[in-house]
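Please fill in the sequence for the structure shown.

STRUCTURE ENCODING:
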């Protein structure tokens, strides 16, 4: 429980709340229909992608800029953060998402609000198909995050923030036609709470969580394994206090913080 006495821990929690609030505010805001006609998929995809890229650049070095319970779950599965930190991250993300959606609701004319960009299945898409799509969307997203955040790599070129943002954009360009591209339980949860519409809502939790977990297992145990013993992994999950003088070492329960290399 030493993390609860750490100022950096609480800064990271607030960063997740703050970042998710802005992510939902701008992402959902760009998804509202202000004029008649079809919704511009590219506009929505770019809005979510650029919002996340901006936030990764802004708070990545503070909390890792997860902004997504599925991403946090993926880091937990990979034993890269403690159970306590993961729980607090997810709570902050959900609260931030609801706060962001509430602000958007309050500043948007009633005629435009609609369902506040609630994720819904496209007609004809079954629950099984929708869940599978969400799994694949989140799987590629988490793989990109793990690869670009990996501190073991010395060959990273370009902007980490843009790489993550483009991965999210890719998911939206495909997923919008099937499920509205949830990819983030907090993003799906916020409009569902405000509109009190939880129809098929479980899809937007089960799909991303499974996809995130699979992405973590695939990267950390198969593609680029982290050579940690069971005791080391358990120590991280329990949030054992770091033993070195700087308080910085593998196995501390600290998040994998972003080392941005923007060109």
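FILLED IN BY: designer on duty
SEQUENCE:
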């Amino acid at each position: 429980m030493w993390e609860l006495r750490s100022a950096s821990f609480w800064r990271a929690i607030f960063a997740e709340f703050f970042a998710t609030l802005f992510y939902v505010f701008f992402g959902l805001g760009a998804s509202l229909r202000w004029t008649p006609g079809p919704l511009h998929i590219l506009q929505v995809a770019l809005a979510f992608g650029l919002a996340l890229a901006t936030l990764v650049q802004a708070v990545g070095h503070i909390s890792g800029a997860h902004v997504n319970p599925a991403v946090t779950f993926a880091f937990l599965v990979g034993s890269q953060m403690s159970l306590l930190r993961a729980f607090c991250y997810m709570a902050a993300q959900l609260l931030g998402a609801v706060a962001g959606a509430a602000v958007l609701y309050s500043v948007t004319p009633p005629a435009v609000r609609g369902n506040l960009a609630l994720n819904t299945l496209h007609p004809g898409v079954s629950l099984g198909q929708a869940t599978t799509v969400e799994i694949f969307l989140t799987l590629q997203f988490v793989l990109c995050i793990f690869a670009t955040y990996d501190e073991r790599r010395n060959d990273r070129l370009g902007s980490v923030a843009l790489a993550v943002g483009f991965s999210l954009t890719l998911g939206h360009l495909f997923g919008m036609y099937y499920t509205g591209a949830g990819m983030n339980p907090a993003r799906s949860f916020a409009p569902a709470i405000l509109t009190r519409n939880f129809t098929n809502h479980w899809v937007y939790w089960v799909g991303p969580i499974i996809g995130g977990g699979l992405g973590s297992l695939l990267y950390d145990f198969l593609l680029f394994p982290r050579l940690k013993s069971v005791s080391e992994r358990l120590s991280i999950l329990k949030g054992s206090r770091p033993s070195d003088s700087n308080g910085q070492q593998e196995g501390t329960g600290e998040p994998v913080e972003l080392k941005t290399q923007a060109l």
